[in-house]
Amino acid sequence: xxxxxxxxxxxxxxxxxxxxxxxxxxxxxxxxxxxxxxxxxxxxxxxxxxxxxxxxxxxxxxxxxxxxxxxxxxxxxxxxxxxxxxxxxxxxxxxxxxxxxxxxxxxxxxxxxxxxxxxxxxxxxxxxxxxxxxxxxxxxxxxxxxxxxxxxxxxxxxxxxxxxxxxxxxxxxxxxxxxxxxxxxxxxxxxxxxxxxxxxxxxxxxxxxxxxxxxxxxxxxxxxxxxxxxxxxxxxxxxxxxxxxxxxxxxxxxxxxxxxxxxxxxxxxxxxxxxxxxxxxxxxxxxxxxxxxxxxxxxxxxxxxxxxxxxxxxxxxxxxxxxxxxxxxxxxxx
Length: 334
Fold this sequence. Notes:
- With 334 residues, the protein is mainly alpha-helical.
- The protein has helices spanning 7-32, 54-69, 75-97, 102-122, 127-146, 153-169, 173-192, 201-217, 235-250, 263-271, 275-294, 300-323, and strands spanning 35-36, 48-49.
- Strands 1-2 form a two-stranded antiparallel sheet.
């Protein structure tokens, strides 16, 4: 499948959608007073608009519509995937305007995950993989929401992971979606780097998690000799979110409420700055991507060693960062 002018024009188009859309979203957020204020459960130190991730959603919707229109993908597959995205984006957008019950959000996210499972079934996958797809969507939607707590972190991670999946899946139709997400996120990122002028909001963080789940689930079979290696670049986010959530559950805390217990939050508080933390997470993920690319044609043994090493290293780093004493438990300066 080819586009007029090829991938550079496609990337520039979605870069523009991300940048212009974010600028418009910021104006809208300021007009509607959609502002995140600093607090004892937030890591930022300045009042900041939210909801900028709607620009990335727009880019994804345009891409899915184009894929269906160009018959690059069957409508029976695109329709439920697009429907799930709109559900996740809509509940996030509503929550950005007026806080909703977490259980309502979880229910809508589950409905979106069911639509992805339906799309997988229509695509010829067996029921076990469809159930796996449901779980992947639920996990990544919430992981990206949990990890969107400091400037530039969630967006830079999504940019790297989506870019890696676009490269692996090229030139398949789903790679065009991942390229669009990476380009739109790159357009958003200058507004979100320290000091952020707008946040992704729930509309953006949840939608990014959903879209990355779709990219993983539809990664072409020949992209990696050992498919589980695709999870290596996600190690920093998955370990921080999973271990922090598990620890809060074991303590009997209200794990669904905002907090400052993630390793990245404690590190940012300790340093008094968001930028070094986001850069360090980006470097970790970039190393994971490079390892994945280098081992893409290797046997399962080499991939399993790399995957195990990556996750074990992330877990050790998580424990060290959480144990380190913070100088500013209430939140860091951007």
